[in-house]
Write a structure and sequence with these properties.
The chain is of the alpha/beta class. The protein has two domains: about 220 residues, Rossmann fold, CATH 3.40.50.300; about 60 residues. The chain is about 35% helix and about 30% strand. Strands 5-6-7-3-8-9 form a six-stranded mixed β-sheet, with helices on both faces. It has a four-stranded antiparallel β-sheet with strand order 11-12-10-13, covered by helices on one side. It has a three-stranded antiparallel β-sheet with strand order 2-1-4. A hairpin with a 2-residue loop joins strand 8 and strand 9. Bound molecules: adenosine-5'-triphosphate and magnesium ion. The site of adenosine-5'-triphosphate has 12 residues, from strand 1, strand 2 and helix 2. Magnesium ion binds next to helix 2.
Amino acid sequence: MTIIQVRDLRKHFKIPVRKEGRLAAVRNLFAREHTLKVAVDGISFNIDRGEMVGYVGPNGAGKSTTIKMLTGILVPSAGEVVVNGLVPHRDRMRLAHRIGVVFGQKSQLWWDVPVIESLRLLKEIYKIPANIYKANIELFNDLLDLHKFQNTPVRQLSLGQRMRSDLVAALLHNPEILFLDEPTIGVDVVAKDRFRTFIRNLNQERQTTIILTTHDMSDIEKVCARMMIIDEGTIIYDGQVAGMKERFTPYRVLVVDFADGIGKVEIDQAELLKREGQRARFRFNRQKVSASELITRLAPKYRVKDIGVEEPEIEAIVREIYLRSADNKLPDSTEL
Ligand SMILES: Nc1ncnc2c1ncn2[C@@H]1O[C@H](COP(=O)(O)OP(=O)(O)OP(=O)(O)O)[C@@H](O)[C@H]1O
Ligand SMILES: [Mg+2]
């Protein structure tokens, strides 16, 4: 069942052109000239209830602008957006009761107030029933160690603690959809791992729909089934994360540790990428030859200590998608 529907959604920002020269300050005051910055350039997608979608793209691609339109913070310039049956910017307060939002760059909590006080305030603002509030606080105590820093003002929290507080705040009212805009920014690997487990459980146990924006591709790989890639305001990929490596590149790397100092090594259908002492890395096309075939060819000729096969990094796949999309745009940019 579709819970988020987006059709040809656009957002442009009007930026006043600053004039220079004599009396510039005065002229800027009355400036009527603007340039348009197109942040989101006509995107369409549907998200079903219970999906976990990664939203990826380079800096300035339009991710946060999209999230802000989906949550009612920004009014679209054109197009349609329906979230949980509501038009976000028209029904912002009603929608707020149904969704949770975390912006990793900026805490939603009161800066000088102990975390628990912020949570109590939110309880009042969102009229969260006492039993739900209590159950959630207990749950998050267990899962996120909330009690360890609940009496600390937000300004004194570590980044990881702040992220956890923001998550708790966003989830207090059992929202059906959770929007996460770079939630793990600056957070260490251990905290990231806890975050990922937490998010997966939330999705499984409550069927919470999750939209996650991040620059960390392992967040996507470990959490999301589906990924959308946005570049210059346009969605250039929307599909399952599983199987992406297969679809976008047939190349794998065979890493071989040889037993003793050997000279030149050659294997048919494998290209030597790098030699470092006893270790050699070969690139091969999985559609043409399998790793085990290559090993069979190597074994009689050289003494081998250890062998492994490396999958491409998801980063490499995403880079490949950007490049292909940039190639398609090439005719427009020949004037450069
Ligand atoms: N309020 C605004 N006024 C003018 N331009 C804006 C405004 N907000 C965003 N932009 C511009 O719109 C574009 C998209 O910005 P957005 O914040 O959506 O990118 P992003 O994909 O979230 O990037 P990042 O990964 O850096 O967070 C950028 O070029 C940005 O400068
Ligand atoms: Mg952003």
